[in-house]
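pinned: reference chain
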Amino acid sequence: MTTHVAARLDLRVESEAEAIFSIAVAQGWAASEELSLTVGARSVAVDELVDDHGTRLRRATLPVGDVVVSYRAEAERPSEPAASGVVDPLRYLRPSRFVPSDELAATALSWFGGASPAENVRRIPEWVFTHVSYTPGSSGPTDTAIHTLLSRRGVCRDYAHLTAGLLRAVGVPARLASVYAPGLDPMDFHAVVEAFVDGRWEVVDATRLAPRTDYVRIATGRDAADTAFLTTLSGTAVLEGLEVMAVAGDDLSADDPTVSVLLP
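pinned: its structure tokens
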């Protein structure tokens, strides 16, 4: 099945900026694609960087002015699972910038400590879905899983950070994946969790806003610090507009949250 994805970012660059974009589909997904960065009629040079998980970053020096970043791709689901090293289960047990699982340990163990890893991969996303309200605009870019646990509000990245934090706190390795998500409403880049259980990475999504079987992988990492669609390393670039599109070639699948789903 072919999934059509696209994204457009409109940036106002106030001083020359070094920026990283993570909007291209992961390695192995693109049947065809096109990416452009322009300032007026002038193209901006872009370098591609690929990490161990197949995340394809684009790095560019943005000149002062109005910059338009456009991406489109026809994505096809790879037959092989995403690359994963032997160290990954250890790496994704550790606390990280937005997932301070050590601070969540006492709470998580009191709530979920008696269950098996496989049970917690079901129980923890269910708890987050039930107890957190999906509320656009309720969280900020520096909020961590602790903020979400206390406020019980957030958007997909907050759901993912809290889910990953509770899983890590009870001994289940968990990582974030950014995805294109056909069926998502409102449409945007989407953040979900992959949990390592029974020797494989299962995708879980406590928001339940789109069917997991139709997701298209973009980036993989510890938390939003590794998977953000835009990172400004230096200079000043203001995001003034964002459009995201993801359309499945066939009818969307029904999603049963109790069924294991793998994301290539």
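why pinned: DSSP finds six helices and 13 strands in the chain. The mean pLDDT is 96.
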